[in-house]
Recover the amino acids of this structure.
């Protein structure tokens, strides 16, 4: 397993290094599908420049990164490319490690042959490292790669069973962008399952552990926020980062659903609609947690998918994050009916994004409706992937339950 | 599923024939729409044209040298009361242009700005006349100066009018436009512009080579197949009708007998000419480069076809005056009418909604084939217990068999794109050819070497070819081709359609089980290079100057060199598209044919 993985790493690093040095790097870092106002490298550089001048980096509504991120880059700005490649590498290591030890705990492995299981971590690594979306995101130096690395580390620590580390990393991920808050529920469910505490609202052990975990999480969040305050000496970053994510003032077109709606609506209704749209992201946590309480890892995958589709400023790096998890559920492929059509749709949309952008902005022959149509189709394809995986998981569970009950009845 | 497999081939054949019939039927007059003016600001053509008839014209003397011409022009424009500026530019060509045989092109553009008397200087119109040393286009410069003098005395101008005389045709225009918009996309060196107008709303380019004009030809095709707004063509046609000037498109006059066979063939020929010109992606007039900056532009060329009825210069002056006055009335850029259209004649057009289904039918063939392959790939594995080997992630060794042809094809494509220009010095040292011929022949050589690849890759892989391997490769290649052709057709419909017509039949039907020699021959005959060759021959037939095989071959080579040059100088996308994407795709299918 080490040899193919090393080969994969070498290939991935080579591709990224080659692209970094070529003239395509500038072209890619300007693409709206790859960078958003939240994680563009240009803005990080701008924030660093303001910091060097002694001005608060949040003045001027350009910089929307968290203070810890700006201090990280303060020290490593010359080696930024290396930082991104290294984060991709660490992400890989986490994914690989978590895949290889996950199945000792999970009951799903029985329907798969050992040979296939052996290949799954490699497939996950391949899916992430060689995914054109991740390569583009890395070459554009979008901080999305770092966010993905933090989430991957969080999943890794959760699966390893370390509640404290998991809480700290989740707090870090939430601090970066608010949406990983929804991952609290699946992490909690995983720990409860691992410690054999039944999810029963009347049991004191359930509440005891929940409070412990919540305390660790909230405590780390408070510590990190306080640290940011002391680093920069003001609370500027809260409206600039979190206010920006929630109120969506920047309407640059991207692959998400927000910009077109918000560009059209009257100011009067803006608050209402931003509440509705943001609520949409958080809404699915409770029903999904109730339904999937025995499969917290699948729940994590579902949540990450929901966040990537419905967040306010998605980029292709977020899409790549949940796509990398797909091979982990390869036992479901047998039942995935529409996967061909859906993946053709996603492929065609990814190819059409730059074409329609060119026709709209440069040639002037198209307009925003064309671009939004492709955005809608792309998100529809993603939602189809999400729902198809969900439905096949339910169907598979039913079949598995029938088989097991048949097995038990035989004996 | 069984239905899909059984009916697949008949449906594909029906779709292909339907696409061809639909395309040819586009020229049939009842299926087209009548053109009329969509922009309200340019509504009626009721302008009183007092005309430039009273102003004597002065042709540029052809014996003068370059520097003398530009000084003379500066003086002439200044004497007519314009603000005159010059701009010098230079460009090192990647290889010598075969017409002019030199590496370095240097030139000077001269332009004069007529300021709008009472309006803020926020918008401008451009009238340009390409002028090079020699006889070409001297009449246009004279007309330009006469118009300038006449316009100077009018008070109704709301936009600045820029009279541009550019040298070296497209290169001068490119340098001027880049300097005007503060960009540098093609690596040209130019001196910055001292004087500017506002943002340019529209532009006209004049080409008049002789003083006897019998008809005016309108040229719309721009760089990368981009077309100006149809309203500009409508405007021109409306004025020609009003003043009784004969106007042509693609050099052909309009006919009124659409229900006869000759009438239909005439319209079909006009449309085919437009398709071929658009597909080659070069700018057929100086106006083509304006389109990139979202400036609606057209070229007007005077033709002397030895008819009895001759148009005098005054009428042409009045026509241009009318057009410029109408453009002066514009409140915003032309956007009301179509940007994507085909013109079987000047008064009828085919919109994108009518011609896209022809292309769509061709792409549907590819998708049906891909679906069929997917079903075949998925079917046997459904019974197996280990799970499905699906196209996105075949297990370890199978990935290598599919990935290798893909990587090698694309590397060949990259070689085809980069090597001809970079290796020209080496080629000139070893072979007795000129640089241009070296570049073109290297390109052809690399293209032919690609044909030998499948045998070598098979040896490398030590016989890993399986039944499933070629199916997976074909599936990937079909989807890749479909997406590629779709994106191409959105930007340049003609290029996408022409490529689809030749590539779709061979790619949809290619399997390793077909008779090798015959299918190899067919594949080569329908490859992208031969498509270009056929287009050259068809184009020559359509402009009524048919060529013999050897002449056609020389024309084909010059087309390739022109394509490479256009890409280096103006950013035309046809050559990189063919070399980096279409050719590797075709190579992948060539690999499938020789899969063993």
């Amino acid at each position: 397993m080490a040899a193919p993985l090393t080969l994969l790493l070498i290939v991935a690093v080579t591709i990224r290094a080659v692209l970094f040095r070529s003239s395509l790097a500038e072209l890619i870092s300007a693409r709206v599908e790859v960078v958003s106002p939240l994680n563009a490298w240009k803005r990080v550089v701008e924030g660093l420049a303001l910091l060097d001048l002694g001005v608060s980096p949040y003045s001027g509504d350009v910089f929307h990164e968290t203070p810890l991120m700006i201090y990280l880059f303060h020290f490593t700005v010359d080696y930024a490319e290396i930082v991104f490649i290294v984060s991709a590498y660490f992400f890989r290591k986490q994914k690989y490690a978590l895949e290889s030890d996950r199945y000792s705990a999970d009951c799903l492995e029985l329907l798969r042959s050992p040979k296939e299981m052996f290949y799954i971590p490699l497939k996950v690594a391949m899916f992430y490292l060689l995914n054109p979306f991740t390569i583009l995101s890395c070459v554009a130096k979008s901080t999305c790669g770092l966010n993905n690395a933090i989430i991957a580390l969080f999943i890794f620590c959760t699966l390893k069973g370390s509640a404290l580390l998991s809480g700290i990393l989740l707090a870090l991920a939430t601090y970066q962008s608010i949406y990983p808050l929804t991952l609290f529920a699946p992490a909690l469910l995983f720990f409860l399952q691992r410690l054999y505490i039944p999810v029963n609202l009347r049991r004191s052990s359930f509440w005891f552990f929940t409070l412990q975990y919540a305390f660790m999480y909230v405590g780390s969040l408070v510590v990190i926020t306080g640290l940011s305050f002391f680093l920069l000496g003001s609370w500027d970053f809260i409206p600039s980062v979190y206010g920006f994510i929630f109120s969506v003032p920047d309407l640059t077109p991207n692959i998400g659903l927000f910009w077109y709606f918000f560009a059209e609506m009257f100011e009067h209704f803006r608050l209402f609609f931003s509440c509705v749209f943001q609520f949409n992201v958080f809404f699915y946590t409770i029903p999904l947690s109730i339904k999937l309480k025995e499969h917290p890892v699948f729940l994590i995958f579902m949540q990450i998918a929901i966040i990537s589709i419905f967040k306010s400023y998605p980029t292709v790096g977020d899409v790549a994050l949940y796509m990398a998890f797909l091979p982990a559920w390869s036992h479901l492929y047998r039942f995935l009916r529409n996967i061909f059509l859906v993946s053709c749709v996603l492929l065609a949309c990814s190819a059409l994004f730059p074409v329609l952008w060119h026709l709209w902005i440069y040639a002037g022959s198209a307009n925003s409706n064309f671009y939004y149509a492709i955005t809608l189709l792309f998100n529809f394809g993603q939602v189809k992937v999400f729902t198809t995986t969900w439905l096949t998981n339910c169907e598979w569970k039913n079949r598995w339950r029938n088989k097991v009950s048949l097995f038990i009845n035989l004996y | 599923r069984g239905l899909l497999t059984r009916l697949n081939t008949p449906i594909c054949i029906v779709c292909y024939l339907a696409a061809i019939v639909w395309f040819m039927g586009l020229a049939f007059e009842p299926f087209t729409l009548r053109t009329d003016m969509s922009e309200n600001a340019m509504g009626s053509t009721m302008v009183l044209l007092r005309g430039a008839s009273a102003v004597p014209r002065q042709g540029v003397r052809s014996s003068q040298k370059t520097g003398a011409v530009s000084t003379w022009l500066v003086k002439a424009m200044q004497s007519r009361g314009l603000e005159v500026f010059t701009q010098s530019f230079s460009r090192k060509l990647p290889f010598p242009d075969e017409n002019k045989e030199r590496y370095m092109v240097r030139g000077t553009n001269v332009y004069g700005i007529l300021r709008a008397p009472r309006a803020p200087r926020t918008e401008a119109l451009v009238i340009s006349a390409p002028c090079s040393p020699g006889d070409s286009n001297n009449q246009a410069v004279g007309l330009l100066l006469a118009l300038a003098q006449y316009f100077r005395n009018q008070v109704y101008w709301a936009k600045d009018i820029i009279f541009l005389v550019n040298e070296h045709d497209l290169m001068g225009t490119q340098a001027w436009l880049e300097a005007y918009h503060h960009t540098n996309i093609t690596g040209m060196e130019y001196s910055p512009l001292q004087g500017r107008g506002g943002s340019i709303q529209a532009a006209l380019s004049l080409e008049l080579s002789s003083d006897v004009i019998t008809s005016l030809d309108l040229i719309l095709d721009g760089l990368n197949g981009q077309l100006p707004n149809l309203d500009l063509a409508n405007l021109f046609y409306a004025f020609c009708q009003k003043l009784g000037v004969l106007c042509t498109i693609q050099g052909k006059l309009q006919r009124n007998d659409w229900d006869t066979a000759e009438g239909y063939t005439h319209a079909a020929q006009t449309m085919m000419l437009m398709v071929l010109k658009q597909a080659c992606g070069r700018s057929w007039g100086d106006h083509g480069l304006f389109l990139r900056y979202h400036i609606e532009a057209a070229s007007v060329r005077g033709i002397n076809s030895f008819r009895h009825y001759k148009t005098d210069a005054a009428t042409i002056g009045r026509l241009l005056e009318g057009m410029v006055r109408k453009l002066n009335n514009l409140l915003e850029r032309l956007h009301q009418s179509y940007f994507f259209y085909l013109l079987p004649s000047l008064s009828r057009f085919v919109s994108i909604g009518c011609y896209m289904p022809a292309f769509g039918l061709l792409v549907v063939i590819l998708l049906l084939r891909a679906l069929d392959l997917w079903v075949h790939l998925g079917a046997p594995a459904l019974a197996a217990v280990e799970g499905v080997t699906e196209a996105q992630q075949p297990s370890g060794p199978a990935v290598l068999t599919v990935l290798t042809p893909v990587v090698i094809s694309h590397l060949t494509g990259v070689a085809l794109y980069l090597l001809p220009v970079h290796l020209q010095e080496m080629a000139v040292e070893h072979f007795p050819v000129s640089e241009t011929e070296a570049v073109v022949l290297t390109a052809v050589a690399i293209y032919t070497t690609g044909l030998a690849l499948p045998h070598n890759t098979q040896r490398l892989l030590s016989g890993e070819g399986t039944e499933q391997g070629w199916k997976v490769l074909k599936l990937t290649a079909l989807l890749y081709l479909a997406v590629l052709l779709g994106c191409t057709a959105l930007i340049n419909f003609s290029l996408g359609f022409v490529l689809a017509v030749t590539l779709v039949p061979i790619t949809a039907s290619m399997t390793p089980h077909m008779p090798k020699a015959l299918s190899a021959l067919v594949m080569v005959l329908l490859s992208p290079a031969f498509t270009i060759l056929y287009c050259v021959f068809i184009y020559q037939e359509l402009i009524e100057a048919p060529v013999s095989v050897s002449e056609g071959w020389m024309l084909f080579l010059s087309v390739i060199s022109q394509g490479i040059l256009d890409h280096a100088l103006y950013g035309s996308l046809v050559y990189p598209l063919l070399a980096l994407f279409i050719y590797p795709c075709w190579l992948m299918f060539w690999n499938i044919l020789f899969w063993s």
Notes: Residues 352-383 of chain B form the longest helix (32 residues). DSSP finds 18 helices and twelve strands in chain B. Residues 52-56, 381-397 of chain B have pLDDT under 50 and may be disordered.
